[in-house]
Design a protein that fits this description.
three-stranded antiparallel β-sheet, Alpha-Beta Plaits
Length: about 280
Amino acid sequence: MNAPRQPPMAPPARQGEDDGTGMSAGSASDAPRHVDGSVRLSKRMSELGLASRREADEWIARGWVRVDGLVVSELGSRVLATQRVTIDPRARRAQAEQVTVLLNKPVGFVSGQAEDGHRPARVLVTPDRRWREDRSPIRFTPQHLKSLVPAGRLDIDSVGLLVLTQDGRVAKQLVGGDSGIEKEYLVRVGEADAGPLSPAGMARLRHGLVLDGEALLPAAVEWVNADQLRFVLREGKKRQIRRMCEAVGLRVLGLKRVRIGAVLLGALPPGQWRYLQGDERF
């Protein structure tokens, strides 16, 4: 088998000239040269939605990535936006085997790593807690727990839809800086010292509050009944809804996430989980 080759380095293009491939293949003693506008290959793969950056680095190291038809196996390699990036079918197969789990998180579990004696929600992903009405044909294996991480978070005292995934593309879609995917919550509230929520207070919840020195994006907020509000957000600052309510004189008595994008919590029972269906998209 031929050793992986690196695409050649092209000098920065003059105005009106082809900018070439932009990849470096100099000797170990050469100082790295970066063509203007080039980015790390792993970053470009993430931008293209091919893989997470961590996953991309793994594939590059395995020789599963080609740039303009040439295998690139050196971590840190750089490319231009004009170059064609393709991946080996083995990478596609590995990616297809990754799973995404939807969990109805109960109170008392943290979203990520164990902290302050509280267990992570991931420990609930066991065969006996799989929802009996899960329609997915996927058979559970311990391999599905490897690198299964939360894509977003729910506070320890909040409940509802929590996404755990092995797929870096899903994680980037849900928690990336430019995600913009809607998240819907049902929030049971009580009055604080300020009394009932005023029209002005409702207007501030919808748009006008500042947290951590930054103006919040517009939110959809409406009453569901006498003591419950529906929030639809496109961002997720730490304890955002609780802090928003506090700012307008409301106490949060209960918070439940019921939707992320087009994926609903539905009838999934508390403490149980199911696989994301092949035809479901956030």
